[in-house]
Specification:
76% of the residues lie in helices and 3% in strands. With 139 residues, it is mainly alpha-helical.
């Protein structure tokens, strides 16, 4: 597998769709959880990350010909690394805390669920690929 295969413009564009959606959902669910005190919002905030990673990864993988587990793993690691860097850049302006707080053991261990979501999405996309259109019809 080539490094260029998963570090592509298409992959970065899908991540650019994932990150703002993930960040806004996390902030809104956290604010709702703190404002209302309802445990359902805390649960939703914990599930939002893996569910959004799954959705965007499935949408990304279903249109690709490369369907190996190594490719899915490398894409998941890249998206998580980019997400952590994105959060680190936004920590001071949004939350008023140091960017180093992103790289705590709790945050890094929590990213395992996101990586599993990407791997499961790759598995689902591999098992149920999108039908490609050709001049003769559906393949």
């Amino acid at each position: 597998m080539k490094f260029r295969a998963f570090l592509s413009g298409r992959s970065l564009l899908w991540w650019l769709g994932l990150f703002p959606t993930l960040f806004m959902a996390s902030v809104m669910l956290y604010v709702a959880a703190v404002a209302t005190g309802l445990p359902a919002y805390f649960l939703a905030a914990q599930l939002a990350g893996p569910l959004l990673f799954f959705l965007f990864a499935w949408l990304y993988f279903r249109g690709l010909e490369i369907q190996t587990y190594a490719f899915h793993f490398a894409t998941g690691v890249m998206w998580i690394a980019l997400t952590l860097v994105g959060y680190a850049l936004l920590m001071k302006p949004v939350y008023g805390v140091s960017w180093q707080d992103v790289f705590g053991i709790e945050t890094l261990s929590g990213q395992g669920a996101n990586l599993v979501a990407v791997l499961v999405a790759g598995f689902v996309a591999k098992r149920h690929p999108r039908k490609m259109r050709t001049p003769e019809g559906l393949v």
